[in-house]
Write a structure and sequence with these properties.
Number of strands: 99
Shape: extended
Oligomer: single chain
Largest sheet: 5 strands, mixed
Strand order of the largest sheet: 2-9-8-4-5
Helix content: 10-25%
Strand content: 35-45%
Radius of gyration: 60 Å
């Protein structure tokens, strides 16, 4: 049977699938056997006998019809089963063949591996990519086949950028099957065009195949962004066949110049096809808008949006969105107001608008604009026009002086350039912000003598007029039709028609004028070459007629002049030129109500329009006298809806007409208008609920209409009907006045429906929807009935107050409390707000989410339990009304009454303020009084006491829930009562109490300052209980503007000791202040007064205006300075120290106004008392300055500050005693606070570390340094405030070099100390007569004992009979010459030397003959050693880093030899050598 066949087939199929996971044999025979076996099994399953319908027994005729119906149905099902079985047979056959092929391939694979081993191959494209050109929104499939060993990896690229399928899910699909690689691109767009490449790579190379893909768009097709998953466009479906419904619409919108803003509409589109949005059009004042740089249009996601990136007043107007639908169009309109941006200069006007450029020629353009509205600003005196070339940012002013008309001809432009223009308004306060720039215009020749001729509809041929006439023109003809196209008070514009023909050479024009009938022509444009047939003329006298003519000029010459114009003048007195000047004022202005925030204003047009461009409407709150603009762009019609008004305020309106010449006079003011909605019938009540039923009557309650129609609701009309009936019957002939009503005479057990209508002064409104079916059955439950009339007040962003009315049916016991449940709108999850029941009919709910919408219900509770919940409240949004204000508690400044004041953010003409205490209405009370006016209401406490504490609330009727509350607590009441007492018992508030000060001449001033004084204020001073009057020695005065009251005593003496009091009276207020001056306080005041008197006397003669003080100059010189005053030429100035006069090189000059005593090289010796004396015939003044103690320290610190700032870096100086660190500065003295540190530890002067200095530097010497003296050294110079620090790192190479230099200098000093030398005894010259004996004797020294050698004329003297050389005791050397002769004259020298060195001493010996006069001897003196003197300790030099010199070893004493040359010197190092100072690291 068929079912069995299907089952068997599925079993075999599962076996085949499971067999795929079994390891197969690799021999072909076994695989073929298994394939044959599977084929036989599948064939048996498919060839099983079909199901045969059994033969049914004969049925009775009455059953045949049913039998045929069942048989037909069964036969139809059987046919479907047989078709399904045939399909499965075909699929099974295909699968069996695939299995056979697969197994054959697998069986051959080992053989192929053995026969054909793998050979590595680089990638190669067997089939390359093919270029494609397809239509938009169709798929593209790119295929290629790649070979290579190992198998290459293929990557896809578009324009050399890798294709990433994950970047746009669903866009790209990459496949690889059997070596065939494919890239499928779904729903192509034009952006998908490009060069696609497949790059195949393996370790042995890379191959690339490229193909171009071109996506074309059908003619007229729009640009649609690709959106994956969108359904394709339906054929024949147009946007106008969509059903569009606007849901959330943009309303009246207010913006400001410079801001960004969007107008949006939310819509429902059926069918909603994301790639087929509705066709949306935007209009401003009936002008179709197109996208521009100033705004952008978009539609998508069910939102149509118009976005302004930078608002200008040009954007103000009535905006309309119009959408095509299948029923025509749907549209919505609302006004956009754009206010002026804050001006750069206070009082400057707003920016002009609607800048338009017309009549553009080769070098000329006419710029026009609309003037801004001015309400409180000064009148506009003119305008500046700016231009800039396209592509640049630099604006150039076109007119040097402001133009007072809203159009300006601009000439001097460059032909072929593009320009933008903007305008700025000017008044006496300043210049406005710039207007929005105009659209770009390109200058060019408008009229041409070239005519374009079309040949056979195919060719355009340009023919010049001179070619048509067969004549070539060189000299042009004159222009024609010269006339004034613009005439106003500032300029006229001349226009003419270019000559025709005018030749091929470029032409320009000369304009000439003639005053009156003088026939004297003068060229106007001498400095400007005109290429346009337009020219503005400015310099024209008022009331003077002019004639003009024009000449055409080219390179060949000039034409004859044109015909002169008719007489032209700037202002036409005869009215020949119409529409000059501003329009006349508009006529009567009528204002009427429109909505709660708008008014409808209409007016009569002015009698003289004068090219009217629109109107400006202004408004003012009655009583404020401050006008503000209602529109900021001229409005064309004579009726306007003014929006943005405050409900409850009263306004008046006026209108001004506008044209190019400015604004007209204001119209007369309209009648005052109270802003409220226009009077209409109320909307329908709603929310009818049953609050009680006794079986024969029902008590109903309902909610007030959402719109009262601008008038108080006076009554409600009820109708009823039985359930199932269509006829309504009046409940009562008399209407209900409250929103609860008891319906009598009902039949128990029946169901009833009810409806309600509200009525006001305008009439009866629409009926409510029918109520539910209420059963007339008596309520007997023990729990209370539902609360009703839920209302919301004091709605804020996070809280609100809910109120309700108690149940009419209380159950078996009275109601004890209430539960309030809350849920978000649309949610069924209610939560109970209050954990404990509240005993009153209100509850403040807090913790709400701003902007979220909630619903509430209330349940009453009694002793029997919780009753039925109330009907759900209206949804309420947790958001405060715009402009919401709270109750303010204060005290009346005049009466001292404590009050609560409330200003409503909106109110209607019929609005009433209802004040409550603890949310119970205050009807009549002896404790408070209530006054209301407009949007203000005040509750005044008659005599506030503790019983007035509590929560006060106010609600405003006929509004959207305007309300507020205030809790008056005990602390607040105490504060208010104190303030009230001060107002009712006023005092003059004082800024300062009575005080005194000592003035010049010892005058004492007593004064007090009040916070505020009136001109009627009075006062008096009292001294020791006695009133003081203005008399000799006493003066009193006051200043109302500052509140200062004062009294002065010219001569303050001991008699003035006592108590001073001032009493002030100012109207009802008074105040008093006292000052006690006795004892020590009086002595201080008296001492100061006497001192000031003495000072006054002193200053009558020459005196010191500033006494002596000190100043340290940049070179550390201390200057004692003083300033003098009231001096003359005869005035003398003298300096003294310790009463001894100091004489200066330059005598002090008192006439210079100051004198100074310099003290250079300041030190402790300069301490003492210094005195400066100033004197002349008028008197003498002295200034004494004691330099000691603190003053001395201050001077030393000042010197240290200058010296420390000038201190050099530490430098290294080596000496024979050790290593010295030196810091040079402008001046140094040991009194300065100077500290040396080694590795952060302070150094004290010792034998090892010596500290000292000179006037130029401070030094620290390390005697006999060792390695432990390595490290960082620093010096700190303290000036009492800051520390000046310098450092030196004595380590590493620096220490090594310094130590080596120290050792060298030490060795040199030792050698100098112990070398051989002549101590004394030898003269410079010795004179002797021949035949006598000469003995040259001297004392020598050296350690070890030196060797002594004598020389004569540089030849060594050897001891013999005549020459005796003697050296005794290592100290005494002598040379004796017996019986000298003339030949013994000459130069003798002695050389004293040991291992450390030595020196030469020379003596001149002169021998004269017997009988001769001895020669005049020279002054006898000790001979000077010829050797280099012993080097002393190097004199400190300024910081200098010398180049180290190579030190030569001291030579050993030379053997005796002839006298060495004089140039020879001991090896003592030269004085110029310095130790190598390492550079600072």
């Amino acid at each position: 049977m068929p079912t069995r066949a299907v089952t068997l087939f599925r079993q075999k199929q599962r076996k085949q699938q499971s067999s795929k996971h079994v390891v197969e044999h690799s021999y072909r025979c076994s695989s073929c056997q298994s394939v044959i076996k599977e084929q036989v099994q599948a064939t048996e399953a498919m060839e099983e006998q079909a199901y045969t319908v059994p033969t049914f027994r004969e049925r009775a005729p009455e059953g045949m019809e049913e039998y045929q119906r069942v048989a037909t149905h069964f036969e139809r099902n059987l046919v479907q089963i047989q078709q399904e079985l045939h399909r499965m047979k075909v699929e099974t056959h295909e699968q069996v063949e695939n299995i056979e092929i697969t197994k054959e391939v697998r069986a051959m694979m080992p053989i192929w591996k053995e026969v054909l081993p793998e050979v590595p191959r680089a990638p190669d494209f067997l089939v390359s990519l093919r270029a494609h050109t397809v239509w938009e929104k169709t798929p593209v499939k790119l295929f290629c086949t790649v070979s290579g060993k190992p198998v290459p990896i293929v990557k896809w690229y578009r324009n050399d950028v890798a294709v990433d399928p994950l970047s746009v899910p669903g866009k790209y699909k990459i496949e690889n099957k059997y070596g065939v690689h494919s890239l499928i691109i779904s729903r192509c767009t034009v952006n998908d065009s490009g060069v696609y490449s497949a790059v195949a790579t393996n370790p042995y190379g890379k191959a690339i195949s490229k193909a171009a893909v071109c996506i074309r768009r059908a003619h007229g097709g729009g640009e649609l962004a690709y959106l994956p998953g969108l359904v394709p466009l339906l054929s024949g479906l147009h946007p106008s066949k969509l059903d569009v419904t606007l849901v959330n619409k943009f309303g009246v919108t207010f913006g400001r110049e410079g801001e960004s803003l969007s107008l949006m509409c939310t819509m429902v589109v059926v069918p909603d096809l994301p790639n087929l949005p509705p066709e949306v059009m935007w209009y401003r004042d009936d002008t179709l808008l197109t996208p521009s740089r100033w705004f952008e249009m978009s539609i998508g996601g069910g939102i149509a949006k118009l976005t302004f990136s930078h608002l200008n007043k040009d954007d103000e107007g009535l905006y309309t969105i119009r959408i095509w639908t299948k029923d025509g169009t749907t549209e919505h309109s609302a006004y956009l107001f754009v206010k002026d941006a804050p001006p750069a200069v206070t009082g400057a006007p707003g920016a002009p608008m609607d800048v338009i450029v017309t009549d553009v020629n080769a070098d000329y353009a006419m710029v026009s604009w609309k003037p801004p509205n001015t309400t409180h600003e000064a009148a506009i005196t003119g305008y500046f026009v700016d231009r800039r070339k396209s592509g640049t940012k630099d604006w150039v002013q076109c007119n040097n002086s402001p133009v007072n008309v809203c159009k300006l001809p601009v000439h001097g432009l460059i032909e072929g350039e593009s320009y933008h223009f903007r305008v700025r308004a000017v008044n006496k306060a300043g210049i406005s912000l710039a207007s929005r720039m105009s659209t770009g215009v390109t200058t060019g020749e408008v009229e041409s003598d070239v005519q374009v001729v079309n040949i056979e509809g195919k060719y355009d041929i340009a023919i010049r007029q001179d070619e048509q006439q067969g004549v070539y023109f060189t000299i042009p003809d004159p222009p024609i039709n010269v006339h004034a196209s613009e005439i106003n008070k500032t300029y006229i514009v001349l226009s003419w028609t270019p000559p025709s023909p005018r030749g091929r050479a470029p032409v320009w024009y000369l304009v000439e004028k003639c005053v009156g009938d003088s026939h004297l022509w003068q060229t106007v444009n001498t400095a400007v070459q005109l290429r346009s047939p337009r020219y503005p003329v400015y310099e024209m006298e008022d009331g003077t007629f002019y004639h003009f003519r024009v000449i055409t000029v080219n390179k060949y010459g000039s034409s004859e002049p044109s015909e002169p114009t008719a007489p032209i003048q700037k202002v036409d007195p005869d009215g020949i030129v119409q529409n000059i000047g501003v329009p006349s004022a508009p006529g009567r202005v009528i204002a009427s109500r429109n909505t709660k925030t708008s008014a409808f204003v209409q007016w009569e047009p002015p009698k003289h329009l004068n090219n009217l461009v629109g109107y400006y409407v202004d408004a003012s709150v009655v009583g404020s006298k401050v006008w503000f603009p209602c529109n900021h762009r001229p409005y064309k019609h004579t009726r306007f809806v003014v929006h943005g008004l405050v409900p409850g305020d009263t306004y008046v309106f006026r209108v001004q007409a506008v044209n190019a010449y400015g604004l007209s006079e204001e119209s007369q003011e309209s009648d005052s208008l109270f802003i409220d909605a226009a009077l209409t019938t109320p909307s329908a009540p709603y929310g009818i609920c049953l609050v009680n039923c006794d079986g024969s009557s029902m008590t109903l309650a309902w909610k007030r209409p959402k719109h009262t129609g601008g008038s108080r609701i006076t009554s409600y009309y009820l109708d009823k009907r039985e359930a199932g009936s269509v006829l309504w019957n009046e409940v009562s002939s008399s209407p209900a006045t409250q929103r609860i009503y008891k319906v009598e005479n009902l039949t128990s057990g029946l169901f009833y429906e009810f409806k309600v209508q509200a009525a006001n002064l305008a009439g009866v409104g629409m009926p409510s929807d029918p109520s539910k079916h209420f059963a007339c059955e008596a309520w007997t439950m023990p729990e209370p009935g539902p609360a009703y009339d839920l209302s919301f007040w004091e709605v804020r962003d996070t809280s609100l107050l809910i109120q309700w009315k108690a149940p009419v049916y209380s159950g078996e016991s009275h109601v004890t409390g209430y539960y309030v449940d809350m849920a978000k709108k649309g949610s069924a999850d209610f939560v109970t707000v209050n954990a404990e029941p509240v005993g009153h009919c209100y509850l403040r709910v807090t913790g709400l989410e701003t902007g979220e919408t909630y619903v509430f219900k209330v349940r009453a509770i009694n002793a029997k339990g919780v009753g039925k919940a109330s009907e759900l409240s209206d949804p309420i949004c947790a958001k405060a009304l715009p402009g919401t204000k709270e109750i303010v508690c204060g005290v009346d400044e005049e009466t001292g009454d404590i009050f609560l004041n409330f200003e409503a953010c909106e109110a209607s003409e019929n609005s009433k303020f209802t004040w409550s205490k603890s949310y119970k209405e205050i009807a009549e009370s002896t404790r408070v009084s209530i006054t209301s006016s407009g949007r203000h209401s005040k509750l005044t406490f008659i005599n506030a006491e503790k019983e007035d504490l509590g929560t006060y609330s106010v609600a405003v009727s006929d509004t959207d829930g305007v309300s507020s509350s205030y809790t008056l607590n005990e602390d607040e009441l105490k504060k208010m009562r104190e303030l009230s007492y001060n107002i009712r018992h006023p005092i003059v508030p004082l800024k300062t109490e009575l005080n005194y000060e000592i003035l010049e001449k010892g005058v004492v001033r007593f004064w007090v300052q009040a916070k505020k004084l009136s001109s009627a204020a009075s006062y008096r001073f009292i001294f020791n209980d006695k009133a003081i009057s203005s008399a000799e020695g006493y003066k009193t005065s006051h200043d109302v503007s500052t509140g200062i009251i004062q009294m002065t005593i010219e001569h303050f003496t001991r008699a003035n000791e006592g108590t001073y009091t001032v009493q002030i009276h100012d109207g009802k207020a008074k105040s008093q202040s006292s000052l006690v001056l006795v004892g020590d306080a009086f002595k201080v005041a008296l001492k100061e007064a006497e001192f000031q008197r003495r000072e006054h006397i002193r200053k009558q003669g020459p005196h010191f205006s500033e006494y002596l003080t000190f100043h340290v100059t940049d070179d550390c010189t201390v200057m004692l300075v003083s300033k003098v005053a009231n001096v003359k030429k005869e005035t003398t100035f003298a300096w003294f120290k310790e009463e001894e006069e100091i004489t200066l090189d330059v005598k002090p000059n008192p006439m210079s106004g100051s004198c100074a005593l310099p003290i250079p090289m300041f030190s402790r010796k300069d301490q003492g008392t210094y005195k400066a004396v100033l004197a002349d015939n008028r008197g003498k003044d002295t200034s004494v300055y004691e330099i000691s103690g603190k003053v001395f320290e201050d001077i030393i610190n000042a010197i240290a500050s200058v010296a420390g700032s000038s201190a050099s870096d530490l430098v290294l100086q080596c000496t024979p005693e050790g290593i010295r660190l030196q810091c040079y500065m402008k001046y140094y003295t040991e009194e300065m606070k100077t500290s040396w540190y080694h590795r952060g530890s302070k150094i004290s002067s010792s034998e090892k570390m010596r500290i000292g200095g000179t006037s130029e530097m401070a030094w620290m010497q390390i005697c006999d340094p060792s390695d432990k003296e390595k490290g960082q050294y620093s010096i700190e110079i303290h000036d009492g405030k800051t520390s000046h620090s310098r450092t030196f790192d004595l380590s590493g190479q620096a220490y090594t070099e310094a130590y080596a230099e120290f050792q060298r200098l030490k060795a040199a000093a030792f050698a100098e100390k112990n070398r051989g030398r002549v101590v004394g005894g030898l003269p410079d010259v010795a004179t002797i007569m021949e035949k006598k004996s000469l003995s040259l004797t001297c004392t020598v020294w050296g350690d070890p004992n030196p060797e002594v050698t004598w020389f004569k004329n540089e030849q060594e003297v050897v001891s013999d009979d005549r020459y005796k050389v003697n050296f005794e005791g290592g100290r005494f050397a002598s040379l004796t010459i017996n019986s000298v002769t003339m030949e013994d004259s000459g130069k003798y020298s002695i050389n004293v030397r040991n291992k450390y060195g030595g020196e030469f001493v020379e003596i001149t010996v002169s021998v004269y003959r017997q009988g001769d006069e001895p020669p005049e001897p020279k002054l006898g003196q000790m001979s000077k050693p010829a050797a280099t003197p012993k080097p002393a300790t190097p004199t400190p030099q300024p910081p200098k880093t010398p180049t180290p010199q190579t030190k030569s070893p001291t030579p050993a004493p030379a053997s005796k030899s002839p006298t060495p040359p004089r140039s020879m010197r001991s090896p003592t190092p030269p004085r110029s050598l310095r130790s190598p100072t390492p550079t600072k690291k």
